[in-house]
Amino acid sequence: MAEGFTLFLLSGMLMCGLLLHTVSQHGANVDKPSKKPNFIIILADDIGWGDLDANQPEEKANNTPYLNLLAEQGQRLTDFHSPASTCSPSRAAILTGRYGLRNGVTHNFAVGSVAGLPLSEVTLPQLLQKAGYYTAMIGKWHLGHNGPYGPINRGFDYYLGIPYSNDMGCTDLPGYNLPQCPACDSSGPQVIRLKRSVHGGCYSKVGLPLIENSSIVEQPLDLWTLTEQYKSTATRIIRNARERGQPYLLYIALAHMHVPLAPPLPPEVSAAGRRPDDSKVYTASLREMDSLVGAVKSASDDTDKDNTLIWFTGDNGPWEQKCQFAGSVGPFMGKWQTSRGGGSAKQTTWEGGHRVPTVAYWPGRIPANTSSSSLLSGMDIFPTLLSLAGVTPPSDRRYDGIDATNILLHGEQTGHEFLFHPNSGAAGTFGDLQTVRTGKHKAFYITGTGHIQAMCVQNQSHYIQSVFIDVCPPWWIDGMHNYVKSSGLSVFSEHNSKRLHFSSFLLIVHYAAFRYCHFAVFYKPRITSGSVI
Fold it and tell me: Which residues form the Sulfatase N-terminal domain (predicted)?
């Protein structure tokens, strides 16, 4: 019994130190392709882990047939996490391979933001562009839309998309949202709509623009035709790449599944001019997104199938406050930590906020119909693609992503030993370290004064069999509590550049086949100075 506690304590102490990864790790013995591969990154917005049919086959849904095929012919990454639980920080980390407090993006950029991803940051498209790649982006940027911060100035040769989220500007025919937002004020100028929304949660002061390269080509854009514009542009880029004979990076940042949703209306609804049942809107939008993925896969398969890696993932979990217009977190339904609006997914460091559906597809290179439970992050896309392209990133900075090539191509079950999740708006300060994951355990660091709580969350009853007794026996709880109370637990937080001395370990979550046991002890830490990393 004492030996078991000691072993766990050692692993817990390791968790409290930050493991610094470099892009050279995990990929040292990688066999490079004979020619530079093409890369297609498809990033869904506000998508739930449970939205992918292949992640929940017992549900027998058929909402994502093309993604199911992608998974059947590729590899599902079942323990893959977005770098943050909200839009801008997650996207910045994906393109830089660095946590938000390294790359400077810890908040979402607003419509009125004058800056963006710091210009000192080097992005994935910039590095691939210098290596001879044609780089194109379609979709939501959300990393700064003024002057030098736009995508054309951050490494993309071509861009078509929206500068921020599709709910951050009015449209003439609004999609489905909660609350339902009004149309643009038709009495105002065509571009600038001066009348404010009657709903505080709606942005309707400025018409939502569609931008091509650096020019506005439509304002307000038509949400209901946006998917077809993205689809036709993506397939054109892929097919033109073969004629150029140039390797390419295509980054598709979808509007799906972010509200407002604007799925194709059923013929009977369109003819009658009425709205369909709200309960069917999300499913229809999910199927529309899936059809776009299918079109991209088909175009890629028809051109350079054996030399193209398609990587599908999400920027964060579903926006649960949107109720019937939000996705499924699958079995990750813990309600212990919630965001200000009451949800437990997007904006939180609860599992539903950052565990996202992820599939990697590369015929002939990635073994078909496989899955990996390696602990991975969206930050790993940066070093992995650079490694496959034979590109070395600048050595004047630290990176947090790892090269996952051997996981994808050779079935290795390595991954992050430690993975940090920043605060994304649920409480406290944006960007601050809030959660640490190592192996089957996840620790939450929460400032406050309170009492000891121990609880088990039954996500689905048939998964639970005396989990609390099996995973968190009383000797373990008493031993951990007494040890940290008597000696203190020192956590070096590179995230906050401060040394945190906790008088108690805060929250341990044990993962075992969707069975969770939570142990929480709330004590206020004292903060002293520490070295900046």
Answer: 37-391
